[in-house]
């Protein structure tokens, strides 16, 4: 068997973390780990990333869940589609279809939802959830969660549209059974998200009440359909945001929650840094600082069961340029964000892994790595780092991993395969 440099680095990463952690008997469980990948609705456009690629790359077979992002909450306090063309109208060619058969005019449903249906037919254990909100779709969550009546209205509309499958302009129930539950991506209850979002101090309690209402209505539907529906949530890494918007009681209603394990630092700052380290690196200039360990420990402290915490992993990099300081580029002043294909300062793993002239640097003890060419710096979560983080998840007794987002991986799904390998159970 040929042993590549990448494989040796991966083994070294696993060995480094193994020497740091020792799993307790209580953590030595055979319960399968959750492996959640976000699929972005808009990725079928400029990124040319369809669910067919999730299937062909082998990623679908290695995931337990896909979160379909996003469905916004409207000013009227109901669920809606952000893009009906992408969701259920656009036809897919044979090349871009999961089943290899082109969509035809007059079929009951097309778009991404039909592709999800085809993907699940090939992967019967795969569960797909609608993610509600997101960074740009959370403006009115606070209003919709404000009263008992508004919560019932919101949840009923979400269940009707996304779970019962009553899509506007199509026969009743045309999309029933395609989605398996709801992922709440309210960013953020009680604290700032995108500029202009409605924020109230009451959001903290109301988010708990909203999760309870979703659980109530989903369970009521289960009694009719005899099908179990998942309820999950995307949660922040910042302890300040946790305190402002969340109660430990939410975990009574959630199947699991994904914790943001990235964007700890980024190109909006004037100094290079880690964006997704497991632990705060030695020499970090900020105190207190962010890390996966800081985030997970905060959630545990408010009563979150470890097995309901799923750590988020990035399939993209944060980048800075204009670095002139000597050394390896870490914690160095920069003049601005590095150029990116879709946005300055961010870039997909599949792109940065092929950048010429860069050297890989690894801090295996802190659990992060980066690329540097003497001028430009990119954070770098590659398969070796995914294996290290998977081992952290195992040793910490967590429930699994979440990945944002699947379109950042390479054509061979190298990152997803590394996560699945690290979280394999017999």
TrEMBL record:
GO molecular function: chitin binding; endochitinase activity
Top enzyme category: hydrolase
Annotated ranges, domain GH18: 33-426
Database matches in SMART domains: Glyco_18
Keyword Lipid metabolism among UniProt keywords: no
Domain of life: Bacteria
EC number(s) per entry: 3.2.1.14
Catalytic activity: Random endo-hydrolysis of N-acetyl-beta-D-glucosaminide (1->4)-beta-linkages in chitin and chitodextrins
Protein name: chitinase
């Amino acid at each position: 068997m040929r042993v590549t440099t990448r494989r040796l680095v991966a083994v070294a990463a696993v060995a480094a973390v193994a020497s740091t952690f020792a799993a307790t008997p209580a953590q030595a469980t055979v319960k399968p780990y959750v492996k959640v990948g976000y699929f972005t609705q808009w990725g079928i456009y400029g990124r040319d990333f369809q669910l067919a690629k999730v299937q062909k790359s082998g990623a679908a077979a290695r995931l337990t869940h896909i979160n379909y992002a996003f469905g916004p909450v409207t000013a009227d306090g109901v669920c809606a589609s952000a893009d009906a063309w992408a969701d259920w109208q656009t036809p897919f060619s044979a090349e871009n279809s999961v089943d290899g058969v082109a969509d035809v005019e007059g079929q009951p449903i097309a778009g991404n939802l039909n592709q999800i249906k085809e993907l699940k037919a090939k992967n019967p254990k795969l569960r797909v959830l609608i993610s509600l909100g997101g960074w740009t779709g959370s403006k009115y969550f606070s209003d919709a969660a404000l009263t008992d009546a508004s919560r019932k209205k919101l949840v009923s509309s979400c269940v009707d549209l996304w779970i019962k499958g009553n899509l506007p302009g199509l026969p009743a129930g045309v999309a029933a059974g395609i989605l398996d539950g709801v992922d709440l991506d309210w960013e953020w209850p009680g604290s700032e998200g995108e500029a202009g979002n409605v924020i109230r101090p009451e959001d903290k309690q109301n988010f708990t009440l909203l999760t309870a209402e979703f659980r109530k209505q989903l369970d009521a539907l289960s009694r009719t359909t005899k099908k179990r529906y998942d309820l999950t949530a995307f949660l922040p890494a910042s302890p300040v945001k946790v305190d402002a918007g969340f109660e430990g009681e939410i975990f009574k209603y959630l199947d699991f929650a994904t914790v943001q394990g990235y964007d700890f630092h980024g190109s909006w700052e004037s100094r290079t840094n880690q964006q997704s380290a497991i632990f705060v690196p030695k020499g970090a200039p900020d105190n207190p600082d962010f890390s996966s360990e800081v985030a997970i420990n905060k959630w545990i402290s408010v009563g979150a069961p470890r097995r309901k915490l799923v750590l988020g992993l990035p399939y993209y990099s944060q980048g800075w340029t204009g670095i002139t300081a000597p050394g390896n580029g870490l914690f160095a002043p920069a003049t601005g964000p590095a150029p990116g294909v879709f946005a300055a300062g961010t870039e997909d793993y599949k792109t940065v892994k092929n950048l010429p002239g860069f050297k890989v640097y690894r801090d295996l003890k802190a659990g992060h790595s980066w690329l540097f060419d003497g001028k430009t710096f990119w954070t770098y979560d590659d398969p070796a780092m995914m294996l290290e983080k998977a081992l952290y998840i195992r040793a910490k007794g967590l429930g699994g991993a979440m990945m944002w987002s699947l379109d950042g991986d390479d054509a061979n799904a190298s990152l997803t395969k590394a996560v699945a390998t690290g979280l394999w159970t017999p």
